[in-house]
Each structure stands twice: as C-alpha cells, then as structure tokens.
Amino acid sequence: MNEPSKTPVVRVVMRLLQGALIGLGAVLPGISGGVLCVIFGIYKPIMELLSSPIRNFKTHVPRLLPVIIGAGIGFLGIANLLSFFLEAYPDQSVCLFVGLIAGMLPSLFREAGEQGRSKGSYISLVVAFVVVLSLLCALNLFSVTITPNFGWYLFCGFCVALSVIAPGMSFSTLLMPLGLYTPFVDGLGHLDMGVILPGALGAIITVICLAKAIDALFKHYYSFAFHAIVGIVIAATIVIIPFASFADALVPNLICLVVGVVLALALDKFNSRFPKEG
C-alpha cells in the first residue's frame, strides 16, 4: 500500500471513496465487495488483517481505517434507498439487479482467470452452477418459505462477511433466492437492532472462523475457487429473474435490465482507473 507520489490527504480521500464503493458493492445485488477489494488492490492487506488481527493491528488498521469508515457509510447509506425501491417497484428493482450482475460478469470472469485457467477451473464452475441451481430450484419447487428470525439474520451476516473475504461472492446472490434480501436490507436501512445485531454477530463469527481458511484457499486454489464463485453467481441470478411477471411490464423491465448492465460496465471502467495498492 505504498503510494509515495500522493499526498496523505489525497490517499485518505481515495481510500474513503474506495471504501464507500466497497460498501455499496457489498449491499448492491450483483456487485461483490470482495471483487472491488481485489480491483482496488487492497484485498491482500484486508485479508492479512482479518486473518491475524492482533498481529497486524498496528501496521494495517491505520492504513485501512479510511477504507473501513467509507465502507460503513456506503453500506448503511444505500440500504434505506434500496428498501424503498424493492417494496415500491419489486420486479423493476430485480431486473436492475440482474442487469448489474450480468454487467459485472465479464469483470468477474476476468478476475477468475487472473492466475490462469485449466480444465479443472471450468469443471469447478459447472459443478458449482449445477449444485446451486438444483438447490435453489428445489426450494422453489417445494415452495419452501423462510421466515426471517434471529438465526436467519445470523446467516445474513455470514453472507455479508463472505462477500468480502471471498471475492466475487455477493451476499445478495445467496439471500435474494431465499427471500431474505429485502427484509435484511429493510432492517439495515431502518437501523433495526433486531436485524443489525445478529447480522453483525454472524459476520464476526464468519471472519473469525473462515478468514484464514478462505485466504489459504484463494492463495493455493485461486482459479478453482474463483470459477466456482462465477458458477454460483450465474445460477443464483437465473433463479431471481421474474419470468412469471416479466411480460406484464416488458418495457420498464427491459429498460431496468439494460440500465443495470450499463451501470455495471461503467463501474468496471471507473474501477480500472484506480491504481492497485500493494
């Protein structure tokens, strides 16, 4: 994270902005906070801090604090707005989110192949796709209804943490097909402690239990793990498309879909302008 050519103020402002985008990416469907960490080049120091917080506290926290603050602002600041649109325009919101996911897929696939691809990479993508699609279709087929409660909000916190420590995994990808995304985001937007506390607890437990393991997984099996995430994202996206009601509002749904794709591609282009930090 050495940036000798930039003044301290510029570095802080840039990290605040990057943190805000990471926070937005963590809560917006289809955009992974972890992928943005990779794109901004701060995934490695974040994982070092999460994997060994005591040992790396003094060296990493001062440098990452603006990112953490910015992420919190971006995460909570967008939640209330999302809650409104999900309730007022559910199908159009989902179509916009599907467009965001589709627009981010080229970037996600590019990141997945950063360390090369093999036949095993594609096998992991296909296996993850088939397994997740089968599970989610089975939930829909048997009309399994999930009622949000303390335990499920713990699971939401697990997904939020996973979206940061596992690049490419957007927590909305897992929560939307289960019907948990809207109540979780609504609770965050209204600062509902019944949602925030179990969510935070789930995130902390996940980081403590999985940060080192996931860090090791991506260090040693980067291509396999990342391609599996691509498969998960594609499968979960297919499930949330509102096929049944799509034709009822075809034009606005298509417009939202296209806008989502354009926004995601624009964000990817914007991200490419940021130099990666070491």
What would your notes on this structure say?
It is a single chain. With 278 residues, the chain is mainly alpha-helical. Helices cover 81% and strands 0% of the residues. The longest helix is centred in the N-terminal third of the chain and has 36 residues, at 53-88. The radius of gyration is 18 Å and the shape is globular.
**What percent of residues adopt helix (DSSP H or I)?**
over 70%
**Low-pLDDT residue intervals, each spanning 5 or more residues:** 1-5
Output the helix-strand order. Answer: HHHHHHHHHHHHH
Mean pLDDT: 81
Cα separation of the termini: 4 Å
Content of β-strand = under 5%
Report the radius of gyration as a whole number of Å: 18 Å
Sheet/helix structural class: mainly alpha
Say how many strands there are: 0
- What count of helical segments does DSSP give? 13
Shape: globular
Largest sheet: none
